[in-house]
Amino acid sequence: MTDFSCVEEKEDFGKRLIKLLFNNKVVFAFLLIIVLFIIGQIVVPGFAKFNHVMSVLQAAFFLGLVGLGQTIVVISGKEGLDMSVGANVSVGVVMVAAIINGNNLNLPPAILAIFAAGFALGLINGIGISLLNIAPLIMTLAWGIVIEGLLLFIIKGHMFGTGSSALELLGNGSLNIGKGKIPSAVLIWSGIILVMHIFLTKTKPGQTLYAVGENDKAASFMGIKVKRFRIIIYGISGALSAITGLLLLGFVGSAHLNLGARYVLPSVVAVIIGGIRFGGGAGNYLGTVAGAIFLTTLQSILVTLDLSEGGKQLITGAVLILLLLAYTRRGSK
Which residues contact 204 (CB under 8 A, 6 or more apart)? Predict the structure, then answer.
């Protein structure tokens, strides 16, 4: 006889699995990444080989690190958004080149200086948003323009200084494993992902972040200094963006003032793809990681196809619109 209970259990398991795969935005984002690599392999044989996958992850790391700051800002609520991340990346690039100037011994003080500068610039965003009640989009966008203007005024259009071999090892080094290579950026990113998972799920500050984003009034009644907390969050976002600039200089090898501009909107899109709730109080960094990898993989495929810049933007925009429509129809998890 047929055991109908076993059949029903299998069907229920299948339904639960499908629901998990398509309703959980993080899982769905990683599925999309797999699909993109399959498409890339079909279009360009070798696209899904280990070393190329590692190079995609290496490029995605920088967007993922900027996206980390964007993630905690969005989770903190109050329609949080940081549009000054690109300017802070540029601050990191310019400052580290001037401080290190080819000398490895200058790397430790450069890291401290970059972190402090980015944190201070981010604090100004937080003060404007939390104390002056300026809308996050307006405040961070305007402050980003001010930062870029200050950089142009200070360097007067001429970059000076360079990175160093130690910085290049951080940004563009690799660990050889047989015929494959694991970029140092990927190893660093793996550590950051682990630390952030523990921070957001196991620590009191992580729980406070979600509490503030979910309901800042309730958090205030619990004794949390909400305004001060949000100011610090924007400071951390600024510091992470500046540190990204430091590592980016090690990756590209030469300083360019506009290196940070390419990360502003993609960092926001990565957060959206990763399922971070824009109302605050929900989401996790692993989603942003998936979003960053997805965007970088998509761009890698378009570059491989040798499309015009207009074609790349058209396809990227169409894909993102379809994703946003799909996410909106499914609703937040």
Answer: none
